[in-house]
Amino acid sequence: AQSVSQHNHHVILSEAASLELGCNYSYGGTVNLFWYVQYPGQHLQLLLKYFSGDPLVKGIKGFEAEFIKSKFSFNLRKPSVQWSDTAEYFCAVNALRSNTGKLIFGQGTTLQVKP
Amino acid sequence: NAGVTQTPKFQVLKTGQSMTLQCAQDMNHNSMYWYRQDPGMGLRLIYYSASEGTTDKGEVPNGYNVSRLNKREFSLRLESAAPSQTSVYFCASSDPGELYEQYFGPGTRLTVT
């Protein structure tokens, strides 16, 4: 069965520190990849997405992610975090072969940024 | 555009009671989804509707039913609520024309006592 694994469950950083959140998936076919963010008390919002082309994708608020096909990974990065980045982050994968748009989500990573 | 809307925002039920969660989208999307979110487990798909007139089970369908009323609306019903169904429920929609990027509603926080 397809699965998505986020290695870091809870990350605590100080402001201005660099961030990298790991995401690996298990599916051998063509995929669309997403990172969503959920700020406290809010619904999920799209941070960035990869469909095809340049494996380094840039999203909102200075986030970027790199798709490494050989490693089945889509890690999220930000060079310098802010207190306002405190949120829960979810990696998600859509297996295109299913043609249903179903997303498989990782367990989520809670990021706490200390001012 | 309102995007994806859900009602109610909060609900408390007693074990055995029933209720329906409503979801509507105004983006003309073909596909709609219901997820539940529990701490440490991410979002798990309950049911989805790839297109109007079709519904399919997701990862955790037991205890739930759905109805795709029309292209806009997709409801989730709990026939006999159980404490294990205490969760936050999110509805989402997507479309192949947008490469299945999903748009989420604000969620319903359900407590079953």
Structure, described:
The complex is a heterodimer of chains A (115) and B (113). With 115 residues, chain A is mostly beta strands. Helix content of chain A is 0%, strand content 53%. Chain A starts with a strand and ends with a strand. In chain B, strands 2, 4, 5, 6, 9, 10 and 11 form a 7-stranded mixed sheet that branches. In chain B, strands 1-3-8-7 form a 4-stranded antiparallel sheet, with no helix packed on it. In chain B, β5 and β6 form a beta hairpin. The mean pLDDT of chain B is 94. At the A-B interface, β5, β6 and β10 of A face β4, β5, β9 and β10 of B.
Topology of this structure?
The complex is a heterodimer of chains A (115) and B (113).
Chain A: E1 3-6, E2 10-14, E3 19-21, E4 23-26, E5 31-38, E6 45-50, E7 56-58, E8 64-68, E9 73-78, E10 87-95, E11 104-105, E12 109-114
Chain B: E1 4-7, E2 10-13, E3 19-25, E4 31-37, E5 43-49, E6 56-57, E7 64-68, E8 74-78, E9 87-94, E10 103-104, E11 108-112
Parallel strand pairs in B: 2-11
Antiparallel strand pairs in B: 1-3, 3-8, 4-5, 4-9, 5-6, 7-8, 9-10, 9-11
